[in-house]
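Please review this one:
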Amino acid sequence: MEYAVEDLRRVSLKIASEAAGLLRDMSCTSSATRKVGKETFRADIESESYILDALRSEGIRGRILTEESGVIETGNDLVILVDPLDGSRNYANCIPWSSVSIAIAPGNAIDIREVIAGAVAPVFYGDPVSFANNTCYLGGSRIEPPTESENFVYVYVEHPEAARLLSDIIMILGGGFKVRSLGSAALEVSYVGIGRGKAFIDLRPKLRNIDIAAGLGIVKAMGGTYLGKRGEMPRIGLRTIERVDTIAVFARDVPLEVIREISQGPLSSAGQRP
């Protein structure tokens, strides 16, 4: 079946926004925040179930990668990456920073760079961000690539050595940044894409492709870039749920020479952490 890319954007925006609304209505209740697994809350299950039903209702068929159910085969038309609740721990503790993300690629796609449409919807505050190819929308309005991004750097580290590398990266960026570690990678990556941050740096091997597929699509649509620890755009697969090692995401206005210095210096050392 053929799908128009803009229709895929609209569908992903609609479903992600509705799931975010469902989560918002359930927030801070004992039933929603009840644990049903080591890292899973009842809200994760409810949101995923809603999204899967909505995809079926919209006639979206393909290989679905989703947090709780893994890989679901409903056809071979598309690859759909779903994070039904990014920022589960925030959500479970009534901290209002979490999101729902959906990314869509052609059925034969094998790399995250092939994602063509998607959306990231905040659960609590703000408009959803969506994209199709090289066009991005905030809520219902098309937005232009940012000419100057906010002075925020979103960061995630665990080891002391990684923290030192992070400090080096920020100094190369120019210093004087406000550092944030908020707890929803999908939302923070998408915000870097639209200029609400200068960079997103994660030096842990914990992110998954489903966490950042839609966000990276937004970054790409807005003219930003992202790198792995070898200083090049990493190959991130779409056939199964997989971990993403080191990743650094930069807004459009970060100069190429600065990105090159980061990639050849501290970022290339990230894989040497203990």
Observations:
- Residues 5-26 form the longest helix (22 residues).
- The chain has seven helices and 13 strands.
